[in-house]
Amino acid sequence: MKTLRGICFSGWAVWAVALGPGGWAADSAAGTTTSLFNGKDLTGWVPVHDATFEVVDGNLRLVKGMGWLRTERAYADFVLEFEWRALVEKYDSGIFIHAGTEGKPWPDQGWQINLRYDQLGALVKGRRTVVPAETPRMPLEQWVKFRIEVKGKRIALDVDGERAWEYEGLDGGRGYLGIQAEERAFDFRNFRLRALE
Q1: Rounded Cα–Cα distance for residues 158 and 194 (Å)
Q2: 3-state SS, residue 6
Q3: DSSP per residue, 90-124
Q4: How many alpha carbons lie under 13 Å from residue 29 in its C-beta half-sphere?
Q5: Do you find a cis peptide bond into 105, omega within 30 degrees of 0?
Q6: pTM of the prediction?
Q7: CATH match of 2-195 with 3.40.50.720
Q8: What is the pLDDT of residues 86-98, one digit of tens each?
């Protein structure tokens, strides 16, 4: 596990206990777990610039384009879980968080969890890598589960149930979640989000 900028692991442990088993907060005041994708259509999502997304066999498929697909709603603190699989060699995409709408084809200064084959799981701000990738390249058509926790300036990534890294230094406060389109086909499924606000 990678810990950056002096994050105390015990602090994350306290947060994990507060979230309860599986990381979903038991306290209803913190919000409820919602699905961001209904498996039928793109309800709740907004295409931005030149990006083609479709629903194929119940999966959200990134087909092609240079743009992104964002949520209708902006979020600040949350726990996001989803699964993805790459469908082509040298795959490249990413998950935006706290993203604004300025910039083309992607948000200018948005934060991104990289889904590029040789930078898998890296944390990127704009075009600058903040947390280098340590997750190995995944085979094509293999489902991989990502879990992203954001609370204040803290963010953590779990890959298939294992903590990949933790980082403190997030900014932006609130913004859209999004899927980057970079001319490479992917499938996504089981998008679940718990807002922690």
Answers
A1: 16
A2: coil
A3: T---EEEEEE-S-SSSS-SS-EEEE--TTSTT-EE
A4: 1
A5: yes
A6: 0.82
A7: no
A8: 999 999 999 999 9
Among all chains, which residue has been given the structure tokens 């799981």? 121
Is 131 within 8 Å of 4 (Cβ atoms)? yes
In the chain, domain spans: 2-195
Task: Name the stretches of the chain with pLDDT < 70.
Answer: 1-31, 172
**DSSP H/E element including 63:** strand 59-75
| Cα angle value 78/151/80 (rounded, 5°) | 25
The 8-class DSSP code of residue 19 comes to H
pLDDT of res. 164 = 96
Which DSSP category does 9 fall into?
A: H
Token pair 């699989």 is found at: 85
Q: How many CB atoms lie within 10 A of CB 97?
A: 23
190 SS3 class: strand
Give Cβ neighbours of residue 51 (< 8 Å, ≥ 6 apart).
62, 64, 65, 66, 67, 68, 69, 105, 181
DSSP sequence for 122-158: -EEETTEEEE---SPPPPTT--EEEEEEEETTEEEEE
- Count CB neighbours of 179 within 10 A: 24
- Tell me the C-alpha distance between 55 and 119, whole Å: 26
Q: Select from 90, 84, 89 the least CA-distant residue to 179.
A: 84
Asked if residue 116 lies in contact with residue 91, where contact means CB atoms within 8 angstroms, the answer is yes
Q: Which two tokens stand for residue 92?
A: 């490249």
